[in-house]
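Re: weekly structure request thread

Next one in the queue (107 aa):
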Amino acid sequence: MVKGYRLQGEALAALGQPEEAVAPLTRAVDMAERLGNPPLLWKSRSALGNVWRQLGRPSLAQEQFRWAAELIVQTAGDLDDQHLRETFLAADPVRAILTASGQLEKQ
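Done, posted below.
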């Protein structure tokens, strides 16, 4: 259900309806938090951050990206395999979130 709400929100945002995207993305974040699923949570927070950015609410967007980045860093720290950790942190979606959060310089 988390993925479904996230996809619904992302679709609404892509269709130029960011105001309508906030509710399903907020539900996705809330559900992912209750489930304790870091990947679902950072992806949902990132999607909500993108919507807040689209709506011209940079402080709300930054807050979501910061929380998503914290989860990413925590997840990376839990990986014992150095190569896997480096591959995860080098992935484009992960780098985009870390950049949006201010943890990486824009390149």
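DSSP finds six helices and no strands in the chain. The mean pLDDT is 95.
Next request, please.
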